[in-house]
Automatic annotation (TrEMBL):
Gene of this entry: pstB
InterPro entries registered for this protein in UniProt: AAA+_ATPase, ABC_transporter-like_ATP-bd, ABC_transporter-like_CS, P-loop_NTPase, PstB-like
GO terms assigned for molecular function: ATP binding
PANTHER family for this protein: ABC TRANSPORTER I FAMILY MEMBER 17
Residue span, ABC transporter domain: 5-248
Record organism: Populibacterium corticicola
UniProt entry keywords in alphabetical sequence: ATP-binding, Nucleotide-binding, Translocase, Transport
Protein name: Phosphate ABC transporter ATP-binding protein PstB
CDD domains, per the entry: ABC_PstB_phosphate_transporter (cd03260)
One Pfam family here: ABC_tran
SMART domains according to UniProt: AAA
């Protein structure tokens, strides 16, 4: 578990439009990397390339390499479904399957990947995953209730439990707290700190304080103008990025002067 990501000369296209240009980035195992930058600068697009989720959009393609412990995720023989098993994703809005129970939500990805799973194994995965998402004690007596019956913060932790149930190496989080209240946000941030001991985590956030609180490294993306591609401007340890960034545009964005 927990693998290194190396991105080399990555360009992301939607049809003829170059959305993200020439990204080079290393993401260390068992760390949290935050992607920040103004709206439309390609943060979420770039994040989705790391588990090939952007491919669900017709005409989307990439050039360059995204390596997971040296293996190219875009290799000719690589199955995108397998990539998504190793690189899990949590989205901006909690999206539990509304017709499924809490336990079935946790098991959804596992059942997709496994032909058959015994009742005792299923129960073990449900408990382990919900404990991993700091949700077990809150829901252990109502596992048969619909996932949609939970509060927003609990639903997001349920989605995290669903993501870690398949035992991925990497967790991608696309603004996982933007739809949550401050208390639920704090619970997710605490959970991220716990999860990074086992997973490589990459998070997109618009919240500068959140990036400063949770991440080990921060990457700033920016866009030169309408119709121009997003670019990685700089990446460094979060403490350095927030105290003495090398590029003026980074400092302007972090200090709130634009973006």
């Amino acid at each position: 578990m927990s693998k290194r990501i190396d991105v080399q000369n990555l360009n992301v296209y939607y049809g003829d439009f170059l959305a993200v240009e020439d990204v080079n980035m290393e993401v260390e195992p068992r760390s949290i990397t935050a992607l920040i930058g103004p709206s439309g600068c390609g943060k979420s697009t770039f994040l989705r390339t790391l588990n090939r989720m952007h491919e669900v959009i017709p005409g989307a393609r990439v050039e360059g390499k995204a390596l997971l412990d040296g293996e190219d995720l875009y290799g000719a023989s690589v199955d995108p479904v397998l990539v998504r098993r190793h690189v899990g994703m949590v989205f901006q809005r909690p999206n539990p399957f509304p017709t499924m129970s809490i336990s079935e939500n946790v098991l959804a990805g596992v059942r997709l990947n496994s032909k058959k799973i015994s009742k005792s194994d299923a129960e073990g995965i449900v408990e382990q995953s919900l404990r991993g998402a700091n949700l077990w004690n809150e829901v252990k007596d109502r596992l048969d209730r619909p996932g949609s019956s939970l509060s927003g913060g609990q639903q997001q932790r349920l989605c995290i439990a669903r993501a870690i149930a398949v035992k991925p190496d990497v967790l991608l989080m696309d603004e996982p707290c933007s739809a949550l209240d401050p208390i639920s946000t704090l619970a997710i941030e605490d959970l991220m700190h716990e999860l990074k001991s086992q997973y490589t985590i990459v998070i997109v956030t618009h919240n500068m304080q959140q990036a400063a609180r949770v991440s080990d490294r921060t990457a700033f993306f920016n866009i030169a103008g309408t119709g121009k591609p997003g670019k990685l401007i700089e990446i460094d340890d979060t403490s350095v990025m927030f105290s003495s960034p090398r590029v003026q545009a980074t400092e302007d964005y972090i200090s709130g002067r634009f973006g």
